[in-house]
Design a protein that fits this description.
single chain, 22-stranded antiparallel barrel, 39 strands, 5% helix, 56% strand
Length: 665
């Protein structure tokens, strides 16, 4: 726990009793280490035991256990993970994803996250802190609806050599190893290699699926002096999925020359350095620099035209400083600033423009005030200046009332902004005299979000249980969406413009209980409703998509972009003979990921049975994991209920099982 707080970049400790609470200390909300009862937002913490017990093989699967989140497996399109819906586009861009403080957002992937190339192995994750609700005041406009903060394990805890392998149906063939050790007397290092391979979902109709990824990841922590430390990390992930569609000709499937079957190759390479100086037990300073390069290629040639719709390259340089201090006994504060430079090059989306640059600078500050034992106040403010958009200010205030040592009531308000991608402001996609996309910066606007929430946190130590409830109202202005600006002409094409006002209301909760030392239960549920109205400025666009029947489909997509009800349950049980059993269940009502498809209502049950062993200097685990034990179901693209003659091309998730073996030397 203390390691997790240190990793988040704060050296001074919170009140002593915080570390003996059943609830963890979190630092992802205000950037200050806080008890959950003092934090200004709801947080779900997924620890290493939960990650292993979930049976997840892909990182995005873990968020099925977090209230308000939806996801689906990698298939012909990269997986997505969204919070409270609004996940249109190939790469969701409204939830910030961090790995050891480094943003996973890429200018290449629509300003969103490519889950197929995240450079972290599940085995290297210490914990995941998920902020359920906007946190733009701490992490900028990408944290519009929430934050996923992935904290990797300290290299000092991974000394030795470990090798692992998984073998199962659907051509599951996974291999990996990890080596860790000391760097003299001043530090520790960890190196991980991980390879995942499977045949994906069973091929249906006009598509073919498969998935391959390869990860190299290195981290070293070095103590420079009694006050200074350095964290160095670097790595690379390569991912390969299938793209394109076949064409039915004379009853036979053949290559479609306009969209042939081909591999989409994507990669993420990064390097990061974090320097920390501890001034005192109550104050520290952190400097972070990261460099990220994303590449993508699914090129093909049609009519002598070279087309690479996913390419080519996105580069990010990011600097950030942060200073934490304790002003007096009742007041703590963190403040800082950051600057990043995004560069993108794409002959398809930015033809003839070469490298298009975008710079964003921001300053932020968060303050915690605890004048008495029954009250904690939080206030934060961030200012962000975007070279393509301009300047915005994001505030947040919250009040936490500690009714008893075990019961806390939280009331909060926040405002956030979300901007479009570089392509939304500068893109031009044309071929064969047809415009596929044309940026309209004169019509673009920034999405705005006002959130009102009330929360309850129960920390019932005598019962070894906790309950976290969040009631929310989230009002979004200027919801951005791509529409055809003139359905009567192929010369105009799509543009991203503000079209709707959206309101998301509901309640979500998570219940954790450990009735016995050998039993642990986690239960979550979300009940929500989304309503929307078209803005008059959007309806005034003559001949646009919104003047056709498609307007009804877009509105339905918005209002069903999250299910009305979703539930998850995880049981972790230690059995006799050293066996470890876990099962996870997921119940989700129907929802939509695209206008012309529906993700149907489903139930899914995953199970895992593991046997950890140790003999002399050798340790390890053998385990059997089964996903979708109850059989095939649809999680992503299925037919709309009103389709009279739907294509049989839905993505069907079938039972997948594999045996894994890990040896630790």
């Amino acid at each position: 726990m203390l390691t997790g707080v240190w990793i988040c970049g704060n050296a001074w400790a919170a009140d002593e009793d915080a570390y003996f609470s059943e609830l963890p200390i979190v630092a992802s909300v205000s950037r200050l280490p806080q008890r959950l009862a003092d934090a200004p937002a709801a947080v779900t913490v997924v620890d290493r035991e939960m990650i292993k017990a979930s049976g997840a093989r892909d990182l995005n699967d873990i968020f099925r256990l977090v209230p308000g989140f939806q996801t689906y497996p990698n298939n012909t399109e990269s997986a997505r993970a969204t919070y409270h819906g609004m996940g249109d586009g190939d790469y969701s861009s409204r939830v910030q994803v961090l790995i050891d403080g480094r943003s996973m957002y890429s200018p290449l992937f629509g300003g969103g996250v490519n889950w197929a190339t995240l450079p972290v192995a599940l085995e290297d994750i210490e914990r995941i802190e998920v902020v359920r609700g906007t946190n733009a005041v701490s992490y900028g406009s990408n944290a519009f609806l929430g934050v996923i903060n992935i904290v990797t394990v300290d290299p000092a805890l991974t000394r030795g050599f470990s090798v692992s392998s998984s073998y199962g149906n659907q051509n599951v063939r996974d291999y990996g190893f990890r080596v860790g050790g000391k760097i003299g007397e001043v530090g520790d290092f960890r190196f991980t290699y991980k390879q995942l391979n499977d045949d994906g979902l069973t091929n249906r109709y006009d598509w073919i699926d498969s998935y391959f990824s390869r990860l190299f990841d290195f981290r070293a922590d070095v103590v420079l002096s009694e006050r200074d430390s350095l964290q160095l990390s670097m790595g690379r992930t390569d991912g390969v999925i299938q793209n394109g569609r076949n064409k039915l000709v004379g009853g036979l499937w053949q290559q479609n020359p306009e969209n042939p079957m081909r591999q989409m190759r994507q990669s993420d390479s990064y390097a990061q350095v974090i320097w920390r100086r501890v001034f005192s037990a109550d104050s520290d300073f952190q400097f972070r620099y990261s460099y990220v390069v994303d590449r993508s290629d699914d090129a093909f040639t049609f009519s002598n035209l070279h087309i690479n719709q996913s390419g080519d390259e996105g580069v990010r340089h990011e600097f950030e400083v942060q200073h934490s201090l304790k002003i007096d006994k009742a007041v703590r504060m963190v403040w800082g600033g950051g600057w990043r430079e995004d560069a993108m090059r794409s002959e398809w989306s930015l033809p003839g423009m070469g490298e298009v640059n975008r710079s964003i600078g921001r300053v932020f500050g968060n303050l915690e005030w605890r004048p008495t034992h029954w009250f904690t106040g939080n206030a934060g403010l961030a200012l962000e200046d975007d070279s393509l958009v301009g300047m915005h200010v994001s505030p947040r205030v919250s009040s936490n009332f500690h009714l008893t040592p075990e019961d806390t009531l939280r009331l909060g308000y926040s405002r956030a902004y979300h901007t479009g991608s570089t392509v939304d402001y500068r893109g031009q996609q044309r071929a064969f005299g047809i415009s596929f996309f044309s940026a309209r910066p004169d019509l673009m606007a920034t999405e705005g979000l006002d959130t009102l929430e009330a929360g309850y946190l129960g920390d019932w130590r005598d019962w070894r249980a906790s309950l976290d409830v969040r009631v929310f109202s989230e009002r979004i202005r200027n919801r951005l969406y791509k529409i055809d600006m003139d359905t009567t002409s192929p010369l105009i094409g799509l543009s991203t413009v503000p079209i709707q006002s959206v309101e998301i209301q509901g309640v979500e909760y998570q219940f954790k209980w450990q009735p016995f030392d050998t039993t642990r239960l986690v239960f979550t549920q979300t009940l929500a409703n989304i309503s929307s109205d078209y803005q008059s400025s959007a309806l005034a666009l003559s001949n646009s998509t919104l003047t056709t029947v498609k307007a009804v489909q877009i509105r339905e997509l918005t209002e069903r972009s999250m299910p009305a009800r979703s539930t998850s349950a995880l049981l972790i049980q230690k059995l006799p003979l050293g066996l470890e059993f876990s099962t996870a269940g997921y119940w989700q009502e129907s929802m939509k990921w695209s206008t012309n498809t529906t993700a149907q209502r489903y139930r899914r049950f995953d199970v895992r049975l593991g046997y950890p062993f140790r003999s002399g200097g050798l340790a390890g685990e053998i385990a059997l994991t089964v996903q979708s034990l109850n059989g095939a179901h649809n999680e992503y693209k299925g037919p709309n209920p009103d389709d009279t003659n739907p294509n049989p091309d839905g993505r069907i998730v079938e039972r997948r099982q594999w045996v894994s073996l890990r040896l630790d030397f």
